[in-house]
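Q&A log
Question type: sequence-to-structure
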Amino acid sequence: MQRYFRIMKRSERSNSRFRKANFIVVPALCWLAGTAVLAQEAGEGAEQEAAIRYSVLYLEPAVPVPEEIDFELPPPEIPRSPELDPEFEERIRDIQQFSEAITDSEILAGAWDNSLVEQLNSLGALQQQQGDHLGAIETHERAIHVQRINSGLHTIEQTPLVEQMIDSFIAMGDWTQVDVYQNYLFYIQQKFYGNNDPRLIPALGDLANWHARAFTMRQGESLAMRLSSAQMLFKAAARMVEVHFGPDDDRYVEYLRGVARSAYLVALNQDLLRELARAQFRAPQETLRDMLYWHFPIVPTGFRAGEDALLAIREYYMDREGEAEQLAEATAQVADWYLLFNRRAPAREMYLEAWETVAEEENADELRLRLFGQVREIPVFAADDNGWMIENLGFMEDVEVEEVSYNHIDLRFDVTQWGEVRNIETVGEPSPQTESQQGWVRRNVRDSMFRPMLVDGENARSDGNLFRFRYWY
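Response status: OK
Response body:
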């Protein structure tokens, strides 16, 4: 099976690409201290950096290549320098005006007047747009402090300010502080709303997504805790949507897909779960579990949790009229799941059922071609966070550190009726500078799984499939 969202540890690279800085920390925000991320590992040194190429950081999902036309992947949306923004100079003037207005307000009303919060928030937002994230963090931190003095330690009004700080820490690649403030953001919402208030649902989903992403980036003292937290939170979010709004709510499917994502990560990393038996890791997970309305087990599950989630998604579409294609895709994803775990008989049955689901549609042949006329990398939900990952690989301008870059490789290979990759070959010759990276990609693809083509509802082997893989280094 493929390595899910493969991103290497910093120790596997030549040097860290993220800007280092001294960060301002709000006192008493270290809730669930056991979840705080360890300092990132140092690089191997400038001498080695000059001698070898960077390893692959991230591999994007496969994209089929049509051979009859010239094909180019759309360029990624890489953040550009704020100085290139036409409004850059105007924001400089606005920042100066806000700074002067804040000084005047302090003289007239004092340093802790509640009216300062809005002004500080506006100033911090401008600093953030300018790329001055350290300044924005300091400004937003001060706004939070003023707000807490006026409205209480756990005031819910500080939520947007904390979210702004998280955005700045993400932009700087300071995952330690992202972790601290993500936990604090959930903590204040849980304290204000309580365990079973539907307004807590987005907070559950946001924190679950963060833990899944942090696992992908190998951030944290215990990766098993990341998997445990992600699965508990996704399950809690899905259950709360179901109870308060019913299973017809679109968010129900969103969070069930999150459960499936976490289950796949668990299945690939069973060896990590032993960590949860250790007291220093078990205690924080029990604390999180006790904070949730539903007390899910702290040891996450793989196959069964994913199967239950995907079957529930399928049932969601079974109860909706006019969505035969979505139901067929949901059924095919259940089949994909069985295939990933080498359960071929139920996989074949589910693929056939997906094929027959669209039989009564006017455009049945078109739908079948779209769904099953091309092999597809599985699990499909592995691509859910692709955009977030690309945006946050560390696009930082620094005269001493080379920017993260990308390249691609075209691979032709066969896919058996059971989704296995065979006879893989590279289209074109790699350069000496990219040969080791592209060799890594080939090995990764060789170990991956694809949804097989269906012919008359039956799994079929397909030869000569051509795909492009973009990788980041």
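Response note: The chain has a mean pLDDT of 85.
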